[in-house]
Amino acid sequence: MPVTGDRLVGLLRDGLPAGEVIGVALSGGGDSTALLHLCLAAGLRVEAVTVDHRLRAESAAEAAGVAAACAALGLRHEVRVWEHGALAGNVMDAARRARMALVADWARGRGIGCVALGHTRDDQAETLLMGLARSAGLTGLSGMRPGFALDGVRFLRPLLAAGRAELRDWLRGRGIPWVDDPSNEDARYQRVRARRALTALEPLGITAAGLATVAGNLARAQAALALQVRAAGRHLREAAGALQLGPEFRDEPEEIRRQLVLAAVGWLAGADYPPRAADLARFLAAMREGRDATLAGCRHRRGWLLREARALRGIEGGLWDGRWRVTGAGEVRALGDAGLRLCDWRATGLPRAVMAVTPGLWQGDRLLAAPAAGFGAATATVARPFHLFGLSD
To answer: What pTM, to 2 d.p., does this model score?
Structure first.
């Protein structure tokens, strides 16, 4: 595709709201640098933020260089530092999460409601390849969303129709420098391997632009399917923080059932990522056969989807187990068998397994209240009903 400055500027004018300050997540790399300058060319008011991940010795100097470049443009810019100790596991994923949290915090502090990200159609193609590598379903193969909300901030990706090389050619044509992060060539990271695989696939006619188009096609198919999934959500009845499967659930097509269960597991466990495809398949097979099974901190038992007792967490962000808003005196813990013996839970008409993983307020071994069972002076409500989770997104 030819390099067309007007086309790129048009992507920004069409993809970002006019009349408000736009936050730009600016790493100093080619994509985000092009995003910043295209915003300016589009006449948008912008402020920028750079996250120094402290993963390389050069990162502080690079962030300072980005700050100096913004100062030369007369733009307000801040550097946020990811303070961390020793890192293990998926470092790039941890860095991404930290970056998004720091950027969202910066935007809220500045009163900025919208932040632009510099992802391109190359990123979209690489995301699709990585989805194929993990045998992802339709949702996982639909690529990056054009926009999403996080911690009260809208994040938009206005350059998903632009190519990485196209953006760099635009920068070169205007003499605008950028910094190349050496980690983008480190084959230890899956995205780098996907990038190299994409180059190897070009002789077959499989290009970034083509794969980005495929991801868009799949995203539209998923959006249409989501309407059916939301309609089928009526087969799941929410009670005491658990979900009862209605008899009509079995009559839904397999993919509808699969996506409903994924939404249910996400609502129950609050996991950042869906379970692996093979684990989900085993769980669905057990459900079809009426067997008990566990998955990602959740449990299926006799037509109910509920929290697995051993996976329950304490108070996080004011919510017990990440879902329950509990008011009343005492330490919040699950009722468990001990709590069930101390209250009349049978009057609820709900299964023992469901009631055992509801919150109780305790003073040592003394049960002060079991809100879901109507015992004691306390309340407990699930912060976000199931019909507003996943199915309405």
So the answer is: 0.82
